[in-house]
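Appendix B. Chain record.
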Amino acid sequence: MTNQEKKAYLGRYRDNEREIRRTEEEILRWESLSRKTTTTMGAAGGGSNGEDKLQAAVEKIVRWQNRLTLQLGERVRLREEIEAAIGTVEDERLRLLLRYRYIDGWRLEKIAVEMNYSYERIRHMHGRALSEIKVDTQKHK
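Structure tokens predicted for this chain:
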């Protein structure tokens, strides 16, 4: 597996986190819409049209919440898988760098400051860490 492929492999955790945030935003959007529908129904005195809209909004919320539950389960699985891969790197500093980058989502510049290394040194260490990491390609498929 090339370093580019390893980056993509490790990046799946952050991708999952972005999906979770997007799903949470969608749930909030539908919850807001359902409150507007309820307010409109109350002001107008009810009616089947408003009730249908409210029912549709509630159904959407439930679907998005089910999707979120699946994504959270995937997040736990990915975290364990990626932590195991990072654990295959012997050097503790390189493992820390990989966690900052692929678990916490930090940019290399921020990692350089945190670890008190130059940016160039961190880039070099990142490449070395990727070269040393061992990925279980059976789990990756």
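Further analysis of this model is presented in Appendix C.
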